[in-house]
Every structure is written in structure tokens, then in C-alpha cells.
Amino acid sequence: MNTDPLNSRGFARDYITGGGNARAFFTIQPGEWDKAVAARNETGWETWTAADAAELAQFNRAADNEAGAQLARKLTEPGTLAIVTGQQPNLLASPLYILYKALTTWAWARKISISTGRAVVPIFWIASDDHDFAELRQCSIVDIKGGIVNVGDVVSRGQGIPPATPAYSWKLDDSAERLKNLLTRSMPRSDVAIHTLEIVADTLKAPATFESAFARLLAHFLAETPVLLLAPRLPCIRRRQIGVISKELRDSHQSFGLVEKARTQLELAGYKPLIQRAPDTVNLFLLTNGIRCRLLLRGNRIIAQNPATKQALGEYTLSELLVLLESSPERFSPNVVTRPVAQDAILPTIAYVGGPGEITYFAQIGAVYEHFGVMRPMILPRCFATLVDVETADSLSKIGISAQDLLRAPDAATARIMPADSHWGELYTGALDMESAMLDRIEKLRASEPAHHPHIEAALAKTTRSITRALASFKRRIERHCAANGSTTGRALAGALTMLTPLGAPQERILSPLCFARDYTPASFAAVLRDKLDFENPLPQIILLP
Predict the structure, then answer these.
(1) What percent of the chain has pLDDT above 90?
(2) Could you tell me the CA-to-CA distances from 78 to 45, 46, 70, 370, 441 in Å, in that order?
(3) Nearest-5° angle of CA 170, CA 172, CA 177?
(4) If you average pLDDT over residues 174-199, what whole number do you get?
(5) N or C terminus: which one in the chain shows less Cβ crowding within 10 Å?
(6) Residue 442 φ/ψ, nearest 5 degrees
(7) How far is the C-alpha of 390 from the C-alpha of 496, rounded, in Å?
(8) How far is CA 486 from CA 391, 414, 434, 473, in A?
(9) Total Cβ atoms within 10 A of residue 77
């Protein structure tokens, strides 16, 4: 069971704690604000026109984010700085870490504005160019029976909208009633929850897209913590990205070489790189008949390929694409390598607030920033937190264990407590015995001489992983059933595990903020987090909610 959001994220953990060699991959370290501001001043950036700022403000007003809209005009002022974060428009602003990102960005913007005397705008980049529908529709809540429900299972892209289309084009009108009905049936009932459901229903009013619903709900959460929302599809953003996209079209082989060199350096330093690019890939997408196509080099031609079907939907010369870029910049969008560079080329960014994966991404694209002549921002880790609501705290009290101890050793806690359940205990004990016997037998097999043959050793390791995952899944299934109809002790433990370590994973990566809707509206929930979270503490926190 993985309860630590930094578990298996060795590079991010070393970067956050200052261990290993992780920070050697960055030129500006956390806290070096004078250096970051000086680098921003030296690099410079093109201040926004009043018209472009007005377009950005209108996008925020359409999302009922008036406080954020007021920040847009600051981009027209030469001395303005920005702290940026971002995420794809996941369904209903889920999971929790999206809100942690936004609040961390807001908190640092305030702090740095006070210390530098400069205007610092917190910006949330809604990455609605993304086309990964399976990922973006994940929205898990704990239902009234104590189980976990992904309400996104009832959501579609919209009638007639095919795979590989960007998220800003996915329409929620077809799914809105199903989604609202499922939320109404599943969420715990209270006056506060009813009000929150009314807010959610308002965000889903037609015409609603993944992007618009995400922006409107996020604006409700951020009502008392102003953050400027930005979507890359806006014409002012597309126009400002032309320089970066043009350079990538001309020099894609350079970007590939720089990313590959950084990948090798990460591996030599003992870290796992996250970006794997093929040498024939241009780090851009081209919108073709509504499909967000990959661009692939084929001799002196560039192919636009449907990522879902692998079908070629167009073939171009470099000159043709450059002409198309000037006439139709809305058809081009960056990918994981070029998006941060494009973002920081058009904004006065001095810092980016990211999660574990993003920290590793930025380590691998540092030289790409230099290649494009764009300032590489300081990377700040978002806050990491597990929230303990009043009901979960009461459950933990009943079984005599603290949230800290449960999160530190959840498997040991369940192995001690679950066997005592009058209904499920015998089955759970049997699962533990089976796990112990099988792992013991595997260890004996591993000790035998034939098991050291390279092919057998690899196969045995794979088999061990499969068995371990299967047994863990079986135990989690028993725990979920225990939450609904176990004994008092079993239900208390299972309920606490479901809230604190849902599906055996860190809470912040799985649960929606709507899991706390029984007691908090979006604005009041964010207000509690703003007061309780230590945004300057980069290590995982446990927060007891009032």
C-alpha cells in the first residue's frame, strides 16, 4: 500500500529534501528569489497589450472568476512577475492535488510580492489541449455506503466527438444529467452538500465543456484566493506561441538531442527519466479535422498522424507548415517538451509550482529552455497533504490508532485489526496466511540455482509482482466490503483506510475535493485549507479538518 505521495518518486524527493544530485539539474534553487528576478529582468519578455489582457479577463469572467479577471491587467505592466502552475481540465477539478497546486501558487505569489515589492500574479494554466479522455474523466468520491465511485464512468466526450480530440472540445451536455444524478445518489446528505451540488449543477449548465466546467468549479474553490485562469486555446496565447512553435518546426532534431542527453544524465545520476521521445518526433501537435495529430518526420516531409488510429491525416513540407502557422496559429499546440517553454516565453514567470512528475520533467528539459532563449523558472513543489475529516478522526479514535501511525504503516495496522472483525476477519486472516506462504515459497524458488538464469530470474520477478498486486487487490476488496457491513471495529478501520489511502494510494491522487462536500462548500473548503496548510513546507502534511 502506497500512502506517501513521494514514494517511488526518488528524483522529486531528493529535489525537495536537497538529497542526492537532483538539484544539480537546476540553475535556480528554491528560495533564490533575487537570482530568479534578476534572470527574469535579464531575459525580458513582451508585456501584454491591453487587448490581449482584456481577452484573458473575459475568459475569467465567463468562468465567474472576477477576482482572477482583475489580475489580467497587471500583465500589461512592465514590472509584473508571475508564478505559474497548471493541470489538464480534469472532471470536476479532481483530484485534490489540483486544488493544492492552485493554493500553493496563490500563497507564494503573495509572499514574493511582499518581499520584492513587485506585482506577482498567480496563474493557473488549464491544459485543455490534452486529449487523454480516460485520465481526465477520473473523479472519485466516497459514496454513502463507504465505497469509492468514479462518477466519470457516466461521462462521454459528447455525441459524435471522436478520440484524440482536445479536451476543450469535449461537451458535457450529453452527460450532465447522468453525472448530477449519480452525484446526488452517492454523496452524503446535508444542507451544505445540497448547496454544493447546486454549484456543481450550475457549472454543468449547457453549453458546458470539460474546460468550462473545470474553470467555473475551480473559480468557486478560489473565491477568496484570486488566481488568474488561462487556457492555451485563447487566440492571444496562440499568437504569442508562434515564435516557439516556429523554432521547434525548424529545429526539432535539436530538441530531441537535448532531451536525450538529459535523459542519459538522469540515468547516470541514478534517477528514472520520464520523457521518452523518438528521433522522428516533432514536439508539437497539429489540429486536423478536429483531431490533435502528432507531427512525425519522414524524410523531407512532416506527417500529421492521428494518435488514436495511427492514420496519416496530412503531409506537409516545412515551408507549408510555417505558412500555416502564420495564418492559423490556433491549429498548433506544444507537447510535454515544448509546453513549459511556450508558457514561460509569453508570461513573466519566475517560478513554477509542480508535483513530483513535473519536477522530473523540468530536470529533463533545462537545456531546451536555453535552446529557445527562454528563462528557466525556479521550480517550487506544491504542498502535499492528507486530510482527516471529523468522521475519520472519530473512526481512528474507536480503533485506537492515529492518522500518523496508520499512514506510516497501513499494512501493519490492517494485519493487526482486520482479523478481529467478526464477519470478515477469518477471510482476511486466510488472505494474510496465503500471502505469507506464497512469498515464502517464492523466496525458496529464488534461492535455487536455476532461478538465477537471466530469463528465469526476470520471469520470476514478474510473477512475484503479479502475485503481490493480486493479493493486495484481494485484501483491498475485503476492506471495502468490511466498510459497508463489517463489525464496528472493521467498519471503522475500513472507513479510515478508504478516506486516507483510497485504493491503496495517496489520498490526494485519488479523491475529489467533493468528498468533503458534506461539511464544506467549495469556497469554505479552500478557506480551511488556506488556513491549515503550511505552503512553505514541501514535505507531506497531515491536516485535521475542523
Answers:
(1) 75
(2) 9, 8, 17, 23, 68
(3) 160
(4) 94
(5) C
(6) -65, -40
(7) 11
(8) 17, 14, 21, 18
(9) 14
Place of cell 496559429: 329
Q: What is the pTM of this model?
A: 0.91
pLDDT in tens, 368-414: 999 999 999 999 999 999 999 999 999 999 888 999 999 988 888 88
Is the C-alpha dihedral spanning 44, 49, 55, 59 positive or negative? positive
Q: What is the mean pLDDT of residues 236-245?
A: 96
Helix segments in 271-355, DSSP class H = 318-327, 339-346
Question: Using an 8 Å Cβ cutoff, are 529 and 372 in contact?
Answer: no
Q: Residue 419 corresponds to which amino acid?
A: P
Non-local CB neighbours of 466 within 8 Å, separated by 6+ positions: none
Distance CA 204, CA 130 (A): 20
Establish whether the linkage from the previous residue to 95 is cis, with ω within 30° of 0.
yes
C-alpha–C-alpha distance, residues 328 and 287, integer Å? 10
pLDDT of residue 483: 67
Residue 465: Cβ within 10 Å count: 10
pLDDT in tens, 281-300: 999 999 999 999 999 999 99
Residues pairing with 303 in the sheet: 296, 315
Report yes or no: 431 and 478 within 8 Å, Cβ to Cβ. yes
At 307 the pLDDT is 95
Q: Which residue has the cell 464496528?
A: 488
Mutual orientation of helices 356-364 and 242-268 as an angle, nearest 10°?
A: 100
Ramachandran region, residue 44 (left: φ > 0; alpha: ψ -120 to 50; beta: rest): left
AA identity, residue 42: E
Cell of 449: 540455482
Within 13 Å of residue 439, how many CA atoms lie on the same side as its CB?
A: 13
Tell me how far apart the alpha carbons of residues 107 and 434 are, in angstroms, rounded to a whole number.
49
Determine the Cα–Cα distance for residues 41 and 100; give it in Å rounded to an integer. Answer: 29
What are the residues facing 544 on neighbouring strands?
Answer: 388
> Are residues 341 and 374 in contact, defined by beta-carbon separation less than 8 angstroms?
yes
pLDDT of residue 503: 87
Distance CA 373, CA 366 (A): 11
Q: Does the pLDDT value for residue 349 go beyond 80?
A: yes
Whole-Å CA distances, 202 to 138, 139, 191, 265: 20, 18, 17, 49
Helix/strand/coil (H/E/C) assignment for every residue in 111-151: HHHHHHCCCEEEEEEECCCCCCHHHHCCCEEECCCCCEEEH
